[in-house]
Amino acid sequence: MAEREHPGNGKEAFIERSSEEIRQDIAKEKDEISQKVDQIGERIKESLDWREYVKGSPYWAMGAAAGLGYLASRVLKRRTTPMERIMGAIAGEVQNSLGGLVAGAAGPGLIKVTLLGIATKAAAGWIRNAASTEAAGGGGPQPQTGRGSIVSQGMDTQPVVNINP
C-alpha cells in the first residue's frame, strides 16, 4: 500500500513501502483478526453454556426442568388397558376389605394375615389368568373331561333334559 504525505509546499508524494513491511503488517493484522475471532468464539461459548444460566438463576432452571419433565411424562405416559383397570378395582376392594385385619395383626395374628395375603394373591392371579385366557379367545368355561368327570370324551356335551317325572 502506499501512504500519502501532504508536505507543506502542496505537492503530494507517494512513499512506497518495502515488501517486508507489507508482510509484517499482514501478519500483524492476521494475528489481530484471529484474536478477535477467538474472543467472539469464547463469548458465544459462554452465552450458550447452560451452566452459567443455572448459576445465574437456579430457581428458574429448576422450574424449567420440572416443567419439561412433567410435559415429557404426560407425552410418554402408558395408557392402562380395561383389564388393568378392572384388576386395579378388584385389588382396591380386596385391600379395603383386608384393611381391618392388617391393622389388628400382632403376634400370632400376623401369621394368619400373612397366609391370608398369600391366598389372596394366589386368588387374584387365578382370576387374572382366567380373565386373560377368556379374553384371548377361549370362549367360556369348557366341560371337564378325564378322570373323575361325568362327561366322557366321546359323549355329546349338550345338556340332557329328562321329561319323565
Element pattern in H and E:
EEHHHHH
Instruction: Enumerate the spans where pLDDT stays under 50 for 5 or more consecutive residues.
Output: 1-14
Biggest sheet strand order reads 1-2
The helix-and-strand class reads: mainly alpha
Radius of gyration: 44 Å
How many strands, what sense, and barrel or not for the largest sheet?
2 strands, antiparallel
Q: End-to-end span in angstroms?
A: 131 Å
Helicity, as a percent range: 55-70%
Strand element count: 2
Counting DSSP H or I runs of 4 or more residues, the number of helices is 5
The count of domains is 2
Describe this structure in words.
- This protein has 165 residues and is mostly helical.
- It has two domains: 2-73, no CATH class; 80-134.
- It contains five helices and two strands; from the N terminus they run ββααααα.
- The chain has helices spanning 19-48, 50-56, 58-75, 82-103, 108-138; strands at 2-5, 13-16.
- Strands 1-2 form a two-stranded antiparallel ribbon.
- Residues 1-20, 133-165 are annotated as: Disordered.
- Residues 150-165 have a biased composition (Polar residues).
